[in-house]
Amino acid sequence: MGAVNAGLADPKQDRAPKQDRSRATRQRLLEAAVACLAEHGWAGSTVSVVAECAGVSRGAAQHHFPTREDLFTAAVEYVAEQRSTALRDLFPDGPTDRRAVVRALVDLYTGPLFRAALHLWVAASNEVQLRPRVTELEARVGRETHHIAVEVLGADESRPGVRETVQGFLDMARGLGLANLLTDDATRRERIVAQWAEILDDVLD
User: Fold this and answer.
1) Is the separation of the CB atoms in 34 and 79 below 8 Å?
2) The pLDDT value given to residue 52
3) Whether 177 contacts 114, CB under 8 Å
4) pLDDT digit string, tens, across residues 133-158
5) What angle do CA 103, 108, 111 make, to 5 degrees?
6) Which residues of 85-122 are buried (b: 16+ CB within 10 A; e: fewer)?
7) Nearest-angstrom CA–CA distance, 51 and 60
8) What whole-number distance in Å separates Cα of residue 87 and Cα of residue 184?
9) 92, 153 in Cβ contact below 8 A?
10) What is the pLDDT of residue 93?
11) How far is CA 109 from CA 33, 70, 115, 138, in A?
């Protein structure tokens, strides 16, 4: 009996590699979905296109994400969480030079995540099934971004006008991201970053 058992695979050991492969496939699909959405927009980003970009079968994609809406809302959420983590990691000791913080937060809105999210917003304005999910996701991401901004800017929101100033800065950063979709706005953006760093210094200190 012992010899027979020795030749049998351990079910627990067999499950672990399968789970690892499944997680890796899911991550590839999420990253491919964001890249496709940023490059091709909603209309051009089908499940088949994403699956091909990720190097997996359409069936494998649908196993992880049964619907297109599941795939793209999960993808934008995944990258948003990754960017939030990366932003926190930039300032592990908390508040620091405000210009560096302003630059990092502006970069959040001028990268591929924002471009992908914008395409998702446009789609959500026309897709009834997608709209509530994207609205809920964006509200949560917005709250998280505001919380991070308050934390790394060293802002005291109990003081009058501070919360509105921080939110105004984030709204401005979103506007810079929109402008960056059509043209390379880097030179003008640098001047605006410098000006907002001074504004935040005046209001928050």
Assistant:
1) yes
2) 95
3) yes
4) 888 888 888 898 899 899 888 899 99
5) 110
6) eebeeebeeeeeebeebbbbbbbbbbeebbbbbbbbbe
7) 8
8) 23
9) no
10) 75
11) 18, 23, 8, 13
Tell me, what's the pLDDT at 54?
95
Question: Which residue, among 149, 154, 152, has the nearest Cα to 171 in the 3D structure?
Answer: 149
Are 156 and 149 in contact, with CB atoms under 8 Å apart? Answer: no
Task: Convert the pLDDT of each residue in 41-88 to its tens digit.
Answer: 888 889 999 999 999 999 999 999 999 989 988 888 888 888 778 877
User: Sign of dihedral through CA atoms 93, 97, 100, 106?
Assistant: positive
Ramachandran angles phi, psi of 145, nearest 5°: -65, -40
Number of neighbouring beta carbons within 10 Å of residue 193:
19
Return the top range by mean pLDDT from 40-44, 106-110, 128-132, 154-158. 154-158
DSSP assignment string, 109-136: TSSHHHHHHHHHHHHHHH-TTTHHHHHH
Cα-Cα end-to-end distance for the chain: 76
Q: How far is the C-alpha of 148 from the C-alpha of 36, rounded, in Å?
A: 28
CB 71 within 8 A of CB 61: yes
Pick from 1, 193, 34: nearest CA to 107:
193
Residue 4 has what pLDDT?
47
